[in-house]
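Q: what does this look like with NAP bound?
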Amino acid sequence: MDRADIGLIGLGVMGANLSLNIAEKGYRVAVHNRTASKIDEFVAGAGDLRDRIVPNADLRAFVQSIRAPRSIIIMVKAGAPVDMTIESLLPFLEQGDSVIDAGNANYQDTIRRFGELTPKGIGFLGIGVSGGEEGARHGPSIMVGGSKAQWHNAEGVLTAIAAKFKGESCCAYLGEGGAGHFVKTIHNGIEYADMQMIAEVYGVMRDGMGMSPKACAEVFKSWNGGPLNSYLIEITGHVLEAIDDETGKPLVDLIVDRAGQKGTGRWSAIAAEELGVAATAIEGAVAARSLSSIKAERQAAEKVYGSLTRTAKSGTGVSLEDLEQALLAGKIVSYAQGFAVLSKASEENSWNLPLGTIAKIWRAGCIIRSRFLDQMAAAYDKGEAINLLMAPDFVEIMKKGQAALRRVVAEGALGGVPMTCLSASLSYFDTYRQGRGTANLIQGQRDFFGAHGFEIDGRGGDLHHHWPATIHES
Ligand code: NAP
């Protein structure tokens, strides 16, 4: 039997779909899974693609069934299972083979694994795969990091299985070590912010405007035909119009308002903090998910403080057009923050991340695919700006949308509709565009209590003032 072109371990939701995608593109794929029964189930369900699948429950035989130098994709639960799988593979690998971790790894683990495998002569790629189950089956966005030499070994397969945007593959090599997984982490942070801002706008429609889920769905569907066009806006329309089979009621009204999180959004907020980059929209979105999880506490607080002061009865002072403009402006700020984190991480890790290419490979296949990513890619390709808020196309959109964003955030504040993420975007924008801020006062305070020094134009830095002694009262 001919050897397989590539191997894949982990036939869970993502691994099974990726394997079928690989086989469909004409490659022979060797497959293995810890629980052997899943291999049989997978093969039984592979239909016409069965001929290109090389199943093996024995790990040594699995490795030997792949042509050398081997590329083996690991698609198992992130964390310790990845280390355990690599450990079990090592005795059977040869110099020049490579392991590709395609799960949602923490990029620091990827850097560690890259460092552990490289001296052994085993290549390591950490790839971010976005698009969920559907993307894995028909074309995800693939963000590659790790050994460049090993990338060339797997490039054909990975490029073929990725989503295509106007014929261009949404798969690219982005840099050494943890670059691919870092970019995927920030992708997920942007995804959190995007989803949260959509939910906040839905909150205004539901609680401020008294709109039914069906009416909200119609609005999101119409927005999907305009500048907000994106996968998340599209699926929001579908989620809002779904009906529960059992009760005949709108499904969204029955779903408990407690959002889960697996960690990548939180990692992106932590990474931004560690790098010293303001990513307030992403942080706000992570915080909003945490607050959503304390439902019992929120219900108790509602009894203490009462519910909204402005309800559907009194209406809101914003229009649907305001909501559309505000959402667009807020989303642009969150993408700008995400790209600013990528830019700083690139500098710190010497990754030389191609920001334009990242925007390009997010244009199809991934969860945050949206029309304006094409404009973002063009802005980076033209070298227009590091922060997207300074790129001419986005300056125009922000100039047009900022008034609506202000109205929506203000209305939310007056009506008690939470605006965790949209208000964070607005505050970031206002701070970013303010030539003279208020940190002068903070520097004065810091010098007062800690002699940290301050700077005065024309007199230099590290200056101090003789502050009065304060009286400590107990
Ligand atoms: P899943 O359906 O839960 O499958 C998990 C896989 O991991 C199974 O093959 C399981 O093997 C294997 N596994 C778990 N613990 C193991 C261990 N200790 N040793 C060896 N194998 C082990 O997971 P999934 O949704 O496909 O996700 C896989 C990876 O993709 C994760 O890192 C996830 O974060 C990432 N990801 C998921 C999505 C998504 O939409 N689901 C999107 C992008 C990325 P057994 O069958 O033996 O239990």
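The chain has a mean pLDDT of 95. DSSP finds 20 helices and twelve strands in the chain.
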